[in-house]
Amino acid sequence: MPDFWIIGPIAWDLALYVDRIPASGHFVQAGESVERPGGTGANVAVALSQAGGRVHMVGYVGADAAGQNMTMTLTAARVDVDHVQVLPGHTSSVVLLIEPNGERTIIGIHADLLHTITIPVEAVAPGDIVYFAAWHDSFTAAAQAMAAAGALVTSVPPGTTPAMQYLIGSRNDFSVIPEEATVIVTEGAKGVTVYSSGKSDHYPAIPTDAVDTTGAGDAFAAGFLWEIGNARPLAEGVHLGLAWAATTVQAKSSMPKTSSAPQSGEDRSTP
């Protein structure tokens, strides 16, 4: 099993459960509110670590209470935080408006400083898996260097396509489907479509009752990367990602709720 390097946001979330998204100028009362750990990078890192992976988190927190909470959350999940930088100011934070069907609307609070972090290119070994859970053009040189050194580099779109083996994102993230990489498009309740070598394959989602879709895409990415890290076929990565996403949407949480990752020789069929 290679090491996983997750580069992306670490955030403190305020989740508000509402019966509807208010129209402009209108009022809505939250039925429930909760502060909780989140951020797409931290979500993927924790999910992979819970499955048993060696995971290095690359990102930043602010010099505030939320940053301390997120550092403790990652450390408790056995994620390596040596490359989590503490920057002056605030930890990333978002407000989540979550409707009864589980769909969420996201409102960012503080400016994103991820583009200012230093990526530890030299620490990544050949065969390691690198996942950019967010993308800035300033990451291009690091991504290309890690790919050239033998790491398997993946990203959310747009990514640096020549450096990427896989691009993973929702349908709304793609204006066009790049041809240079294997593109994995998540489509919520419709499932996932994989574009590769000029053809496409569709995988239906696992039916489930969603209460909170926050972190579902991160759960999918983590499940997919876990199987790729275990040298399993792409289809098995998609199936495990869909299973982890289905488990995640059944819980009120920003971080993925994953079932145990199957070990070598165990049944890998999705529930």
- Helices, by number, come to 5
Helix content: 10-25%
Give the strand content: 25-35%
Radius of gyration, whole Å: 18 Å
Please write the CATH class name. Alpha Beta
State the secondary-structure class: alpha/beta
Report the average pLDDT across residues: 93
Distance between the ends: 24 Å
Q: Strand order across the biggest sheet?
A: 5-4-1-8-9-10-11-12-13
Specify the overall morphology.
globular
| Biggest pleated-sheet summary | 9 strands, mixed
Quantity of strands, as a count: 13
CATH homologous superfamily grouping: Ribokinase
Q: N-to-C SSE series? A: EEEHEHEEEEHEEEEEHH
Report what the structure shows.
With 271 residues, the protein is an alpha/beta fold. The protein has one domain: Ribokinase (UDP-N-acetylmuramoyl-L-alanine:D-glutamate ligase, 3-Layer(aba) Sandwich). The chain contains five helices and 13 strands. The strands form two sheets. Strands 5-4-1-8-9-10-11-12-13 form a nine-stranded mixed beta sheet. It has a four-stranded mixed beta sheet with strand order 3-2-6-7. Strand 6 and strand 7 form a beta hairpin. The protein is globular and about 50 Å long.
